[in-house]
Amino acid sequence: MKRMRWHDYLTVNLFWLGLNIRNTAVGSVFMPYLVDAFVRPEVKNTALGMMRTAGLIIAMLVQPAMGILSDRSTSRFGRRRPFIFVGVLLDLVFLAAIGLSGSYGALLVAILLQQFSANVSHGPLQGLIPDLVPEDQRGRASAVKAFFELLPIILVGVTIAKLVGAGQLGWGIVATGGALLVIMLLTVGLVHEEPMREKPTVSLRGPMLRVLGILAGIGVGAVAGVAGGGLVGGLVGLIVWPLAGAATAQMVGVGLGGLVAMVVAVVVGVWAGALTTLGSDARREASFTWWVVNRLLFLAAVTSIQGVAPFFLMHAFGVSREVAADMNGTLMSVVGIFTLVAALLGGWLADRLGRKGLVGVGGLVAAGGTLVLLGTLAVPTLLLIYVAGTIIGLATGLFMTANWAMGTDLVPPLEAGRYLGVSNLAGAGAGMVGAGIGGVVADILNRYQPGLGYFAIFACYAVLFVLSTVSLRGVRSRGAREQGSRGERKSLTTKTRRH
């Protein structure tokens, strides 16, 4: 591999900027805005959660599958760039379909098609750094990647969200597609790939089965979560009913049942996916599996807060969806700035607190920010919401910097790709757990008392943040485990000699 020059770090990572402008605009701006326009207010959280869940299932299948196919590509234009080029052209078509949709059903179809096209480019993109960056320069390249992943939160907040807030949805979609197209053309023109001479002879069967294993894990987790949450909610309801009446019993049962459903879905889903994909290695590398649990608990909470923010703002301040989109844009910018600052400082802090310590602090700080957010339901002031956003943004920046570094340390050095593929459980599962379950809980409880649903799910997300820190008890560094194994062998040898 050729040595990287300073500008190569930018070009090899540039498409992460376009990809995340698209993802942030679609997920945090267009989808909530249009769902509110197409469905009844009492079911909009459920409708948004179901749409996110369906889209993430598509992403979970297409992203790794396209990555695997790009690994085998012998195109003279390189392995990754043709997929990025085609994916963006399809994106432009399906972004237009989102803007032209006139009903929830049409929007759902457009979102599913857009998730397909988005992941045609996303999967192969992940191979550019391993393909083109020498190993001793990947740390710097990954830092630039992280910067381009977080910067769109700010950019979308001050541009696209403001256009939608002004009632200019069409121009918001045009701006998204235009930015994506320009960045794709720059990437295709400036990134230089060497074509692969010979197509790999290794069968696709194994890698594709691992993709299905991850999907099966999330399915098992979802079933277990719904069953566990329903059982606990029912039992709690039966206990509360004689003491406080049927209505209160149902509200408490739904809230606690929703929380249990989220937690069970995360833990069971990750372990089922890891066992299906890694087999007995999942138990031997239990620290890695608990790292995925930690990551999914945190991401389920933070992405769900971000997704439900427009609906929450509409309720708290009694404003239209256009005003809420504008307010959400400002909030995204505030959160994005502090997330970016914390991420840039995260490496320095991780060296002093340790990666595991910083990940744990991130979970607890995020829980504190969510509790502040709960306070805005009683006293809805923008200042308090910005304070909560600042705290959650700082926590997210610290977490994202240290968590991925911790995960790369935990995987067996010779099987990093096989293990880190399981981390897709966290990326795809986050929206399914937080929005899929949380949306239903919010709508049910909001029918009893307006705003109660948001209070309940924010409380659930605060608990998920705390549990993400608690789950670190199952994570031990590779060095500590090897030292422990040597100690056990030494102790066994000593006992054998005595006998």
Order of helices and strands: HHHHHHHHHHHHHHHHHHH
Number of strands: 0
Count of separate DSSP helical elements: 19
Total tally of structural domains? 2
What is the helix fraction of residues, given as a range? over 70%
Percent of residues in beta strands: under 5%
Q: What ranges have pLDDT less than 50 throughout 5 or more consecutive residues?
A: none
How far apart lie the N and C ends? Answer: 56 Å
Instruction: Supply the CATH superfamily name of the largest domain.
Output: MFS general substrate transporter like domains
What does this structure look like?
This protein is mainly α and 499 residues long. It folds into 2 domains: 1-191, MFS general substrate transporter like domains (Growth Hormone, Chain: A, Up-down Bundle), CATH 1.20.1250.20; 207-480, MFS general substrate transporter like domains (Growth Hormone, Chain: A, Up-down Bundle). It is built from 19 helices and no strands. Helix 1 (6-38) runs antiparallel to helix 2 (44-71), helix 3 packs antiparallel against helix 4 (104-125) and helix 12 (286-317) runs antiparallel to helix 15 (382-410). The chain is globular, with a radius of gyration of 23 Å.
Tags for this model:
single chain, 499 residues, mainly alpha, Growth Hormone, Chain: A, 85% helix, globular
